[in-house]
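We include the entry.

. . .
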Amino acid sequence: MQKIALAAACGLIWVGGAAAADLAIYAEPSPSQPVSSSLALAGFYVGLNIGNAFEGFEYTDNDFDPPETYDFAKDPLLYGFAVGYDAPVSGRWLLGAELRYDQLDAAFAPFSDAGLPTLFKMHSSTSVVAKVGYLTAPGTQVYGVLGYGSVAVEAEEGFDGWATGNVGGIVAGIGAETRLTDLLSASVDARYFRGGSTFVTEDDEEFLPKYLMVTAGLKVRTGQPAADTELASSQPYDFTGFSLGASLDGAVGSMVRTVSTPGAETGPFWSENVGAGVRAGFDGAFGDIFLAGVGATADFYHLPFYDPAQDSPDVAGTTLFGTVESVFALTGKLGVQVDPSAVLYAKAGFAAIYTTANEDFFALDGGGTKVLPGYQVGIGLETALVDNWTLSVEGLYTEALEGLTTENTQLNQVALFPHLLTGNVGVNYRF
């Protein structure tokens, strides 16, 4: 499903880019003219969004002493809509508020190999957030969001019943938005949610939902901003040539552990962390506003995966069974310069995932480390800041094409298959 979501998100970008190309909105003002206030990002809006979510929950079974807590994951397609308002407050700064609804539709059955049915479901997310935006150009802003979210959930209860309810928590994220036409804008957005309390069933089982979602969106803006948001327009920024950059990453990993032992937990298991990355690339122009390029990235984060059951009678043994430490990627990129100072783009290519199986977890020290081959796809928006500096917001999906088979006496007994969803904000220097 994540491949469908990313393809659809890329389609949103290219549809919007084609519309902007037809209208060539950035070619009209001269450097001495103030931009029309209709092109500044303020006023009311209604938007649609589509993308990929890594959804998860912490599951605590209190029948054990001490209780066992698992972290499970799922990565379905998501889609939704938003309504909001942005108001200019001072110079390039905007303040706003947004109400957003996302359809998640994830059913978790982490113990299906043991013959157990679906354990937990996440249906939808509703959130209300405050926004702080900064106009990097008259038609482009970067923004942060912070607010309250609620997730509709179901959990198995009793022999054949279900408990339903909602779990509230904090939503935080970052995004970038750029004008395509007088009314239409496009955005790339990454948001993280974590429940503030657990959902408890009559079976004394606890569920704590969470997610990382990366979406592409289209917005229709209708309000008229105040005149003090008008900024001097500029000639189109040159996004061609070589570039170097660094990024701050928020990453969620999901790992399937295929186990030939009947009844053993296979997951997928969840892990989350922040990290950092470095990048280099080259972009060239073709046509009036289209770009193509190549890039190399190296992202570093520590993503540990745990199985509290251990699949072992040794209650004192470690529960850490695997980690992902870094991802290296070589990708191609296609972009559309829809604003004088902004490029919407899609990227895809090869990835290498540095993965370790913990030798202290598996029988006969059956661990090992391997760089797994895989692929990476993503969407992003890059906007000019000052002189040679730009800022970018990206969403990336990375999946291993083969697993890490642990080294033990039973051939192919256990294999680890990681995949990741990452939202990042980067600063780039263009030569």
In short: The mean pLDDT is 84.
